[in-house]
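Give me C-alpha cells for this 282-residue protein.
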Amino acid sequence: MISRPTPSHTFHRLFIHAALLVTCFATIFPLLWMVTAAFTPNDLILAKAVRFWPDDPTLSNFMIAASRHPIWIWLWNSFLTATLITIGKLILAVPAGYAFGRMEFPGRQALFWFIIATMSFPTVIAIIPTYIAVVKLQAVDSYGAMIIPSIPYIGFYVFYMRQAFRSLPSSIFEAAKIDGANLWRQFIEIAVPNVIPAIAALSVISFMGAWNIYLWGQLVLDDAFKKTLTTGIATFADLEGADRAWGPLMATSLLSILPVLLVFLSAQRFIVDALAPGIDEK
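Here you go.
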C-alpha cells in the first residue's frame, strides 16, 4: 500500500527545494556575472547590478585585454606549468603508491606514515626557505622556480595511489609471477592499466591545483611574459587603479577558468569511477 504524502511533508520538500535553488543561484551568480561582463562592452558593465545576458554582446574585452597584457602567453605559461607539475607529481606518486601498496620492504610502514604526515605540514611555512633556496640558486623568474618546488607535495597522491593499487586482487599479480613477469612488468603491464581512472582523477586534481597557484607564482615570476594567467590577472588591479577595466578583467578571468573546466568535463567519467565506486550498483 502506497501512503499519500501529508501536507506537512509536501511543504517540507518544497522548502528544501526552494532553499537548494536559492543556494545554487547564489553559488552560480558570480560565475554568471563574470561571463556576461566578459561579453558586455566595458562602459555598459556597471549600468546594471544584475544581468543574465550580455548587453550588445562583443569580443572587444578580449581584444583590449590582449592589447594591454600578454594574456595568450600567460595562457600558454599556465598550461605549460600545470602540465609539467602534474606529470612530475604522477612520476613520483604512482610508483611510490605501488611500492607501498603491493611490495614488501624494511621500513615500509614507517616511511609511508612519514609521507602521510607531510599532508599536515602547511605549505605556506615552506615558502620562505624555498624562496631563499631559489634565490641562492639564481633561479628566480624562471619556469623551473615555478615548477620544481611545486612537485614534491605528494602526500595525498601517494596515499590515494596506494589505496588504488591495494584494491586490485592479488591473484592477477600471482598469475603474472607464474608467467615469469618481473616486478617492472607487473607494474607497467598489470597494475597501471587497472588504475587508469584513479590516475586520471589525480591528474585532474593536480592540474587544477597547479593551474591556480598564485602566491608562489607572485614571488618567483617577475617578468610579465613569464607570468601565468592566475598571477597575471593581478596586474589589471595594479595598473588600472580606480578606473578599473572590468570588461577586460572579466574576459581574462573567463579565459583562466575555461581550460580547467574543459579538463574536468573531459575526465568527469574517470573522476566518478575513481571517487564514487559502487554508485552504479545502488
